[in-house]
Amino acid sequence: MSHTVKFTDRDEVIEANDGQTILQALLDSGIEWMHACGGFCNCTTCRVKIEDGMDNVSDMHEDEKNTLRRFQGDEVLEGPFRLSCQVTVHGDIKISEPDWY
Ligand code: FES
Q1: What is the model's pLDDT at position 101?
Q2: pTM surpassing 0.70?
Q3: Among residues of the chain, what percentage have pLDDT more than 70?
Q4: C-alpha separations of 14 from 3, 62, 63, 76 in Å
Q5: Is the C-beta atom of 22 inside 6 A of ligand 1?
Q6: Ligand 1 centroid to 42 CA: how many Å?
Q7: Region 76-84: what's the mean pLDDT?
Q8: Which DSSP state fits 49?
């Protein structure tokens, strides 16, 4: 089963296999997406903003929380930002590329 991942900030739509990380779906689709630590949850360069469909992605596990908190502060956990190398897709979603660092 595959799901649709639609960008809200550019004219692109890709497919993600059920349970695939957003990062892997992006890379498989030929989209360049920064992932400095290689997808090991040790940076935050792969971050993605979930614009719609937060219920269709995996819950945030402790490692992802700790990495986001370490680099971006506690408040980032309140928002729609996730690490694309950690979050998996289980339904249609809409995303955009965050412009914060
Ligand atoms: S690639 Fe480094 S945290 Fe995702």
Answers
A1: 54
A2: yes
A3: 98
A4: 8, 28, 27, 26
A5: no
A6: 6
A7: 92
A8: E
